[in-house]
Give the backbone structure.
Amino acid sequence: MTDKTAYDPGTDGAEMTFRGVMSYGDYLHIDQLLSHQRPLTEAHDEMLFIIQHQTSELWMKLAIHELSAAREELKAGATAHMFKILARVCRIFEQLNGAWDVLRTLTPADYSIFREALGQSSGFQSWQYRMIEYVLGNRNPNMLKPHEHVPEVHRRLSEELDRTSFYDDVVHLLFTTIDGPDAEVPAPQLRTPHRALPEIQAKWKQVYCDIERYWTLYELAEKLMDLEDYFRRWRFNHVTTVERVIGFKRGTGGTSGVQYLRRMLEVELFPELWHLRGEL
């Protein structure tokens, strides 16, 4: 006969009493974390909407944390460590992509019940999303304006625009590896979206035409392509979800909604790497 006695993990040494010692909930501040889902209406689906966006912000916080580390590893010449970090960022965006699958279970009828309660709030105003774009090189200074009401956030974003982007740092490595420390590196593009430059594309072409000689640069280029691939999918899933839920209505933050998001699909983070494909 099967023993139906309830299993007690304590008999195998598991800690079962946490008075006076750190528990799982203590370490992760679970009580505080779970207290921040505060629907403004009685609509059942508002909880889904809140949690999807809050968890996305947590993943974006981690992405910024990892990209900051990748920058430091790049400057230190620790490319192997940097590659590991970039692979992790790709996995983070895979999680962000998966979140849209859950939100797409929200129907237009479901959303319409609580949409007015959102007021002017919109994902368009996510400062962490903007920071990720700024770090990677899509630097539109006009997008600072929605954050002027939070001085600390505005300061952090503005300071990011005053330093070289991660891609600018990659371009510096590209030129100095091929041409040496005295290479004529294109000026960094700070307070402007990265514009494709033929001299950068030409350097990447050298890498792709002599992979064995420039293997590390080649691997870095493909890591960047992986990252932008996932990032593009995130944007595409965003567009698809919005169109499915609200059609072509204006966004709550005043944007044109789907039309605005479709325009964002045209943005290229690392344009020279994409344009190069047609030359090979």
User: Anything to note?
Assistant: DSSP finds twelve helices and no strands in the chain. The mean pLDDT is 91. The CA atoms of residues 196 and 271 lie 6 Å apart. The radius of gyration is 23 Å.
